[in-house]
Amino acid sequence: MSRFRMYPTPVQQAGLREHCRQARYVWNLAVEQWLMWTADKGLTPGYTEKSRQLTEARAEFEWLRAGSQTVQQQALRDFDEAVKNFFRGSHRRPSWRKAGRREGFRIVGPQASRIVDLNRKWAAVKVPKIGWVRFRLSRAVPEAKSYRVTCDRVGRWHIAFAAIPTAIPAPGTGSVVGVDRGVAVSAALSTGELLFCPGLSGAERRRLKHLQRRLSRCRRNSNRRRRVRAAIARLHAREADRRKDWVEKTSTDLARRFDIIRLEDLRIAQMTKRPKPRPDPQRPGGYLPNRRRAKAGLHRGILANGWGSLAQRVEQKAPGRVERVDPAFTSQTCSVCRHRAPENRKSQAVFRCVACGHQANADVNGAVNIAAGRAVSARRGTPAPVSPKREPQLATSR
């Protein structure tokens, strides 16, 4: 996906929001019909039947007929594809779309290629029933058959063109790097480098805390509450932008410098799940402590460091050159003598082997073990084969 910032006029913003509202309405109707369908009614209606029902609804309701049929039908196509992906096991169950969250719509077909360059910095795309909307040319526009217009919680509009990104060529040096992802250190490389994902500054964190306290005192549905929520959303959007920028730069640097990139095979979705309640056998209806608050802090740390985004972007930029390694005991094993013991990990940052006395940064030691790992997981695809004539060597510090 190549995403660009859009700058619609106030009139165009109203039209784009109406497109988002109608696409959300059609999607939620399809979800409701799908969830309420029973086995005695026969096969679930497919896209053709839903499209016929949409035509009847447009003939009956004026407000629906005033919208773009292209946007509404594409919402049905997207839902049909989401259901197929769910039954294939590659995606989650299609769920409801809420106002203000992930607002957007998609345009597919010849209309998606209606783009003109205004000058070196600006271009315009023609949106159905909206007209030409300007967007900033931060890079070259790829050739794509579809695009998606989205609006975030801060009110910023973006357009993303669906295009397969070009792979970054390998340097051809045979170098291998291991990446250990953590909370205190976002990514530790086997070369000894420690990378930190930027977040909010100290002043910004204090302001966020102050705004959250103000939000708790605001009356619901008041104008003050809306202003405070908008200010909080701007801070969160600033943090997300910095994290995305760091992920893009780090993944590009890894793909350019190393031939093989080894990552821990972490199941991040399962790691960040909310712990289940523990019923108390002594008190019917009561529950035992399950450390939910402590685990919530770990969840925030994992998500704030972009573990999943970094692995995804590295695999997209270096296809066939990313290997998944079993993460078991990589933090407790000495990278020199291979002795494994929980006592080796003295603290979060210090690793001292009780057998040979080797001392190093704990995250770097784990990254070296990942780089030298041989138990490559095949759960997410088979890695590129390594030539038996030339084993890849660990990259040295630059």
Question: What does this molecule look like?
Answer:
By secondary structure, this protein is an alpha+beta fold. It has two domains: 2-161, no CATH class; 175-277 and 304-394, Nucleotidyltransferase, domain 5 (2-Layer Sandwich), CATH 3.30.420. It has ten helices and 17 strands. The chain has helices at residues 10-36, 47-60, 62-65, 69-88, 202-217, 223-257, 268-271, 292-304, 307-317, 362-371; strands at residues 2-6, 103-108, 115-117, 122-127, 131-136, 146-151, 157-161, 175-181, 187-189, 194-195, 260-264, 278-279, 287-288, 322-325, 350-352, 359-361, 393-394. Strands 8, 9, 10, 11, 14 and 17 form a six-stranded mixed beta sheet that branches. Helix 5 (202-217) packs antiparallel against helix 6.
Write a concise keyword list for the protein shown above.
single chain; 398 residues; 39% helix; 17 strands
State the CATH topology of the largest domain: Nucleotidyltransferase, domain 5
Q: State the helical fraction.
A: 25-40%
| Average residue pLDDT | 88
What share of residues are in beta strands? 15-25%
Q: From the helix content, strand content and strand pairing, which structural class follows?
A: alpha+beta
Using the coordinates above, name the CATH class of the largest domain: Alpha Beta
- Number of alpha- plus pi-helical segments: 10
Q: Whole-number radius of gyration?
A: 25 Å
Q: Which architecture name of the largest domain does CATH use?
A: 2-Layer Sandwich
Shape: globular
Which residues form runs of ≥5 with pLDDT under 50? 374-398
The number of strands is 17
Largest sheet: 6 strands, mixed
Total domains, how many? 2
CA-CA gap between termini: 32 Å
H/E series: EHHHHEEEEEEEEEHHEHEEHHEEEHE
